[in-house]
Amino acid sequence: MSKARKMPASARTPGQRQLRVGEELRHAIAHMIERGEFRDPDLQGRAITVTEVRVSPDLRNATIFIMPLGGGDCGPVLAGLGRATPYLRHELGRMIQLRLIPDLHFLADTSFDEAGRIDALLRLPEVQRDLDADDDGDAGSDHGAD
Fold it and tell me: Span 75-91, mean pLDDT?
């Protein structure tokens, strides 16, 4: 009799509670950033988008993906948010009802950069030629035409 191997926690899909808590945290953090109550010079007057919040299965850690509106360097914004983390956790404790407010870790969201890179690759003449050749090849074939 073989034992089934457990999947590592990172490979599992997030549970309903993780998704709900992550979304609640995202809305609360975005609201605090929108109000702009930070004294940190790297955050004052900056428009920051909170694109996603991923919460660990035990709800003790939250990774917040951010992006400065209009692009630009995320370094100073990440540093400012790192310095503002104790304030953010305190405010989150007042805003949402959780037994434990997770530790907050801020990262730059690179998904938009990656999407732009893929889009640029798809627009290359060599790729367009290959895509056009595939379309021509499919038009003449009779897949399942019997």
Answer: 91
